[in-house]
Structure formats: C-alpha cells, structure tokens
Amino acid sequence: MSSAAAPVVLAVDVGGTTIAAGMVTGTGEVLLHERVPAQRDGVWRTLDTTVELLERQGAAAARLGRRIVALGVGVPGPIDVEAGRVGEHVPHAPDLAGLPLARLLGDRLGVPAFVDNDVNALALGECRFGAGHGARSLVVLAPGTGFGAGIVLDGRLVRGAAGFGGELGHVPVKFDGRPCWCGGRGCLAVYASGRGIAEAARARVAGHPEAPLLAAAGGDLQAITAEGVFAAARDGDPVASAVVDEACQALGAIIGTVVNGLNPEVVIVTGGVAGSLVPLETRILKAAGEYAFARALAHTRVAIVPGDKRVSMRGAAALALYELERQEEDRR
Ligand SMILES: [Zn+2]
User: Fold this and answer.
1) Ordered alpha helix ranges (H), 17-174
2) What is the mean pLDDT of the chain?
C-alpha cells in the first residue's frame, strides 16, 4: 500500500504531569506514542526529556521508512508563535520559560518546528481530525488542572496580539467573584478547573473534620481532588454538590459568552475534567440556555469529549500541518 511510506509529523504535548511524544500521519493516525513524567527526582527536565523522546521517535520513523516533514509542540501557557518562543509564565514547564523552543528542537531534528499553546493545538486537532471535523469555526474549552481554551474562526486560529487569544479560562464569569491565581477575579478557572474545584471544596470543609469530603480524604485537606468532589456529589454529598453546581453554572456562563460572542459551529468541552462532566451534560446545557441567545445556541453544537493523550498528539500534529500550509500560502 502506498500509504505505508506516507510522511509523518512528530508531535509533542508538554503537560503538567507528563510529556507525550508521537508520530502522526497526515490523516491523523497516531502510529506511535510514548509518555514520560515531566519531572525527574522532583526536578523539571522538560527540554531534555522532550529531546530524548523526539530522538527515539525519529529513530522509530527511520526504521519504519517514514519521512518526517515537521514537528509540532503544544506547551501549556502563552507562546510567541512567530518567534517560536515560550512565554515567561509557564508554571507547568518552568524550565522552558523564555526558550526559543521551535529553533532548538527544529535544529536538533533538521525539520521545521512549530510551538503553540497546547489548547490552541488541540483546537486545530479537533477541526482537522476530531469532533469538530470539517467545522470552520470551533471553540475548545479544556478544564484540566488549569483551564485552557482555543478559538478557530473561519479556519484560522485566533492568537491575539500577544498570544493570549483564547485564554477563556481567565475570563470573569462572576465579576465580584473569588480572586484567581492569575491575579484576576471571578475567572472561569476559579469555578470550573480541577484546581478551582478542589480549592473551593477545601475552603468549604476546612475546620469541619466531620465533613464526608474531608473524611474521605483521610482528614487531609490537600488530598481533596476535583475527581473526589465529583464522586462525592454523585453520592449526594451537599458540599460537593454545591461546588459541582457552581462548576456547571460557570461552564454554562462561558458557553453562553462564546455562543453570543462568536456563535461558532462547534464548542467542544474536553481536558482532564471532561470525563467527570459527561454525566452532567444536560445540566451544563441548561445553564448555557440561561445565558445564550436561544437561536444562536441552536446553531452551535456542544460536545463534551473526555480528553486523552492520543487526541493531544493529533493536536500538536495538526499545529505543524496548519503552519506548513500557512507558509505555503505566504509563498504563493
Ligand atoms: Zn484567572
């Protein structure tokens, strides 16, 4: 079969806990992928680890007779895309701060390399290969530890003037709400990210050792996780239910903001928390209906899709393909 020798792109997804690298075809098939912890012995070694992973993927591509045409890298945080440089604020990969990552990795592999925010890459991946296949306008909302988002309009990624385009996790959903770790107040991330949900639950049960949420965490406040909060809410725990209600309402508010502001064809809710949100879809959509214009919402398909590493590989690959196409357009 001629496709056996089809060229591939290498893809890297830098996450807060793991770094994944893989080999992806132009049709989104993930041929190989590997993931390793982001820290070794408590030290961030994102760059070294990424280089090692890419060298192994490169050797595997050679063994399979696959030509590598480009490399795409998704990094959690704002990126100066034109310079291929990681921003100064990357709490989930601090050793990459300020590095010209595209040049460093591209020189190493001898192929064009492109770096962008991980959820921007995910949005391109969903358009090209995923739940938004064929859509010209799509918004990805990705609650994980933090809250990432990506916007594609008319087939173009919205990056903004300084790379902050699509930072919907730090859009206020409650203007007099709780302070956010970004320095803002009432941000979506405070109510609907994994960190925000866990912190909200901790604040409510602190000093109440009899609270089931705290008891289930062995009395250790820091051991309360978002996953634990969702599970306790399903069991009817009133504190956990209140936190989950707030998360659903906050997601409804941001879907309303997105639908009224952009009216995209598709909104995809994905990321680490999405698995816990699937059973809550009806509630989230009902909340969205409280904020969005009914006719606008009727023309936007909302899908909750649990995140997985293969999808993020496809995102980083889609980023590389998107940028190669942009370069080609510029040359014409
Ligand atoms: Zn914020």
Assistant:
1) 46-63, 101-109, 118-128
2) 93
